[in-house]
Amino acid sequence: MKKNNLITICYFLCCIVQIIFPQKAESQKAFVVGEKLLFDVNYGIITAGYAEMSIPQYDTVLGNKTYKVQFTVRSTPTFDFFFEVRDRYETYLDADGIFPWRFEQHIKEGKFKKDYSAVFDQKNNIAKTDDGDFAITPFVHDIMSAFYYARTIDYSKFKIGQRVPLQNFFKGKVNPLEIKYLGKQKITVDAGTFNCIIVEPMVKEGGLFKSEGRILIWLSDDELKIPVKVNTKVIIGSIDAELKEYSGLNGTLKAKIE
């Protein structure tokens, strides 16, 4: 596998967390401290990397109780030979509103390294970053908080093709995105067989990601809405991230049928 293909793996894994909505949550039953989700990243029949999403603990940021959420991506030992990936993202979500107070990004991809952090002053609508201070919209999200907030949304009354306007802070700007609801489907991965809803991030110019193909995300069709599968098309095929293991869920995974 060439270097660019493994970069694409990391690129599309981050799109798992790219579903974003501009409001704050009123209440949520989707996740709790202790949740851990593990994924295989497959290029054809080859496992090229692994990803983990977890909520290890509560924390306090600017005097506010938060969920500490972590997302890590790494290449397999085999693909380390071609292009080593060790990426880590963290967000600190308001425990009530599910919006971020702090975001961190630590990237190591081949010889490229980057560390970035942002503190979101949600009371005064200012993002204080390594690159300076920037104005933000109320309850704006980062790439991690956005996904977890999206899991609190009730899609049961959505019509196929319905879109939701989105907002995301990236590189000093609040960028618009949309999420398109595509319906329901039953799928099987290593973790089991699930009834799922399908959504597609519709990426705007100037947003965080610019994909050459469609990105489809399967979420469990229940209150937990855990990501079960992500698929993206690339020039020479497609890449899938599939749920392998899960633990610490906030109740029964009702969408699992086998």
Task: Describe this entry's structure for a reader.
This protein has helices at residues 3-14, 77-80, 143-150; strands spanning 36-43, 46-61, 64-75, 86-94, 100-109, 112-121, 126-129, 132-135, 163-170, 173-189, 192-203, 215-220, 227-234, 237-247. It has three helices and 14 strands. The protein has a 14-stranded antiparallel β-sheet. The radius of gyration is 17 Å and the shape is globular. With 258 residues, the protein is mainly beta. The protein has a single domain, classed as Beta Barrel (YmcC-like fold), CATH 2.40.360. Strand 9 and strand 10 (173-189) form a beta hairpin. The longest helix has 12 residues, at 3-14. Residues 11-22 and 205-211 have low confidence and may be disordered.
Shape: globular
How many domains is the backbone divided into?
Answer: 1
CATH level 3 topology: YmcC-like fold
The helix-and-strand class reads: mainly beta
Query: Could you list the spans in which at least 5 consecutive residues all have pLDDT below 50?
Result: 11-22, 205-211
CATH architecture: Beta Barrel
| Helix count from the secondary structure assignment | 3
- Largest sheet, strands/sense/barrel: 14 strands, antiparallel
At a glance:
With 258 residues, the chain is mainly beta. It has helices spanning 3-14, 77-80, 143-150; strands spanning 36-43, 46-61, 64-75, 86-94, 100-109, 112-121, 126-129, 132-135, 163-170, 173-189, 192-203, 215-220, 227-234, 237-247.
Topology, element by element:
Elements: H1 3-14, E1 36-43, E2 46-61, E3 64-75, H2 77-80, E4 86-94, E5 100-109, E6 112-121, E7 126-129, E8 132-135, H3 143-150, E9 163-170, E10 173-189, E11 192-203, E12 215-220, E13 227-234, E14 237-247
